[in-house]
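Trying the structure run again after the queue cleared.
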Amino acid sequence: MSKTPARGFTLIEVLVALAIVAVTLGAGIKAAGSLTNNTARLAEITAAQWCADNQLTGLKLARRYPDIGDSLFTCEQLGRTYNGKLIVRTTPNPNFRRVDARVLDENGVTLLLLSTILGR
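Done. Tokens:
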């Protein structure tokens, strides 16, 4: 009787292949989760930027030289309400004012800060 060599994979080879597949799938799931979080963050920042843009554009369209000081505003975008603060400060040139529109999240942390210069 002649002995034929066994064909197929050994248990060690199968376990190594399964470990490689498990690590690859784990990395893929982590990457997909990161993409989901980034998409939600991008939507939130975009809505906050729309709010800040609306506030600064309103000041420009009013054609009124803004008074120095802080004021609060709220804005609704994409079904969410954002709180914000308009901050008007002097500049070295008395004919211009710096206006910052700061949009906050629900915890009061700044999501976005948008600045412009308004003249007389």
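The CA atoms of residues 92 and 98 lie 10 Å apart. Worth checking whether this holds up in the mutant runs.
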